[in-house]
Amino acid sequence: MIASLTGMKPGERYVVESIERAHHFPGFFLDGKYYLEPELQTAVGWLEGQQFLYDQLDPTGEPVFPERVAGTIEDLTLILADGARLTLSEDPFRAQADLPIQLTAARPVQKFEQRPSPLLVAAAALLFGGCLLALNRFRGRNRNR
Q1: CA dihedral over 26, 30, 34, 36, signed as positive or negative
Q2: What is the DSSP letter of 38?
Q3: For residue 12, how far is the Cα from the chain centroid?
Q4: Mean pLDDT by 10 residues, the chain (145 residues)
Q5: Tell me, what's the pLDDT at 60?
Q6: 68, 23, 19: which is closest to 46 by C-alpha?
Q7: Rounded-to-integer distance, Cα 93 and Cα 85, Å
Q8: Are 44 and 55 spatial neighbours (Cβ–Cβ below 8 Å)?
Q9: Buried b (16+ CB within 10 A) or exposed e, 23-36
C-alpha cells in the first residue's frame, strides 16, 4: 500500500525530475516500487511509508545512499538527504499493444516460431529413456520370480 502523503496513486507511473547537481533517477515508480526498465522484472527501489530506499551501489559495492535511504517522498516531491527537492510527475504508459501498427511492403510482418530449448529436449529424452530402462528391469525381475 502506498502512503497517501506521497501523493502517488496505485497503478500510476511516476518519473523523477532531473536537475543539475542532484542525483539522477532514470527509472519510474509504480505501485510503491522503483524500476529501471519497462519490463518490471526487478525493482531496484521501494517505498517504506514515505521513505524511498534505493538499491544502487557504487563501484566498490557500497550503497550510494547511506543505509540505501535516498530520501522521502511528500506530495509528489522527492526530498533527498542533502535537501535537494525533485518533483515527481505522472508518466502515462502506452503498452506495445496500444501503439499504432504500420505495415508496409518494405517491412513485412515477421512470424516467430516458439521452439523448445535443446537442453529441455535432451533432458526429456534422458528422462524418458531412464523410465524405459527402469520399466524393462522391473519386468525382468518379475519374470524371474
Answers
A1: negative
A2: T
A3: 16
A4: 91 92 92 85 92 93 92 96 93 63 53 68 82 81 69
A5: 93
A6: 68
A7: 24
A8: yes
A9: bebebbbbbbbbbe
